Amino acid sequence: MTKKIKLPYILILPTYIIVVVLVAYPIFDVIRLSFTDLLLLRPGTGKFVGLKTYIQTFTDPVFPLVIRNTILWMALATVLSIGVGLVVGYFLSFDWRINRLLRAVILIPWILPPVISASIWKWMVHSDFGVVNDMLIRLRILTSGVAWLGEPRVALYVLILVMVWKNVPMLSILLSAAFQGVPNELLEAATIDGASGWQKFRRISLPTVSYTLLILMVIVSIWNIQQFVIIWITTRGGPINYTHILPTYIYEMAFTNFRFGQAAALSVITIIILMGISVVYLMLFRRTAKKD
Amino acid sequence: MMRLKTRKISRAVIINLLGIIILVFVLFPIIWVAITSLKSQSELFAIPVRYFPKKPTLQSYKEIFFKGYWSGQALLWHQYLLNSLFVSGISTFFVLLFGSMAGYAFSRFSFKGSRILLTILILTRMLPGPALMVPIYVMISNYGLRDTLWGLILVHSAFGLPLTTWLCAGFFKSVPRELEEAAIVDGCSRVKALFRVVLPLAFIGIVSVGAYHFVGSWSEFAFASILLETQKIRTAPVGLGDFIFLFGAAYYNRVGAAAVTMAIPITIIFLFAQRHFVRGFLAGAVKE
What we know:
The structure holds two protein chains of two kinds.
Chain A: H1 2-33, H2 52-59, H3 63-92, H4 97-105, H5 108-111, H6 114-124, H7 131-138, H8 155-180, H9 184-192, H10 197-226, H11 229-234, H12 246-255, H13 260-291
Chain B: H1 2-37, H2 41-44, H3 59-64, E1 69-70, E2 73-74, H4 77-108, H5 114-123, H6 133-142, H7 149-173, H8 177-185, H9 190-219, H10 222-227, H11 236-247, H12 252-285
Antiparallel strand pairs in B: 1-2
Helix pairs in contact in B: 1-12, 4-7, 4-9, 4-11, 7-9, 8-9, 9-12, 11-12
């Protein structure tokens, strides 16, 4: 009898040891570290300094810019990815011959490591030899090349488009599956009643996938904030901090400036923001669940 | 009648045109990096940009592998790929072993606290990895595992285990319990039933979970870049990141060659396991 109770615990033990030690414990440790002046791992540093790191963070002239960029990055990359994903997903949900080809290859950008995506796009938007400028000049949209990643006002938006390119494949596959779940009888009935294609999309298909859309919003915004590699590899937060988001700023603070204490404070702020977003989403879920 | 026919044809044209636009949007950047990797130095900087290299060459592939040097630094691309293979391979082994053990426990036993334990495990997936870089760096250093591949393997396994456990539990659940019980009634021990009945039926699912983790580990940049210091033990994503800054625009064909060689193994894995990837992703993300 006792053997039967013990077995499942023995089976889950290794997983929990690894996850608790390497993922759960660091959450508490990062809070502790954020109240210290730890500088890399230098002995003598790491003393308790109270709220000093937080005061430094909130008086840091770069910090408001980082927060603005983070909000822009999360909001725009999420909304644009889902918007484009919705259109492409609707297209893919039909049984056309070209869609068989599309479905077979569309996920490749999604599967590629972010470092590779970053390396591809960094070269494509190069000011002198980039193919994007070349195309725009051939189409007479531009007269001379633009340094897409060198312009403080433009760079972040260019990187957001790279994110959209990376996110759209998976989103369109997921949404096309959701669109295919729309009952056919409903669409046929609407056709008989004389509904146009747009009306069918707006009144029948879109409401059916709205729940999937909401869930995808959560997932994509979490993807986006984790995906800092594309920024780090292409611009390192530059020009003059105009593409720094919280994760890249943490990375720079910790592993370029070695100010671990302050990087920990930034990490805690990031975790709190993400938890806030999750709570908002949870409340949204509850409300839509009640409506149904 | 004629009108209907022309309308039908123009509809087909529009659909195919839209499809081709999507196809170009998705694939052009990938094709472009392959083309870039085949360009010689002079064609790399041709203006206007040359879309089809006149003399495609494998020169840049030769330069990054084996005995290539660049400003006094050895280019160890083959070494980076081997390191990545080691890290991804071993961590995939760990997550499959421990994850399927835990997944089996969650799917076959209802024990005290099982629901809460599983929920906690799933919640850890919501944590932002970048926010844990500092404490994990400190911890791995304290254990003396910094600058070793084993430290990185441990981190990759820890971040991969929650999803692996969750997906494995799902696959085990899909094997009817009656089959297993029938085997036990017929005189199999529980372990024997596991190996003879349950594992073979859940096999494809478990392999696809492994492939999914392998690809994730193969791609991981952040922790690899902070935990590995010695050049010889760096993984491919870190190496590629180095190349981009080392070569800059001057030798972007080499960066392209590195990107292509790094993408090939996971693209092959992916093309084989594509359907399972989407299903696995759905199970991990959308359910619950």
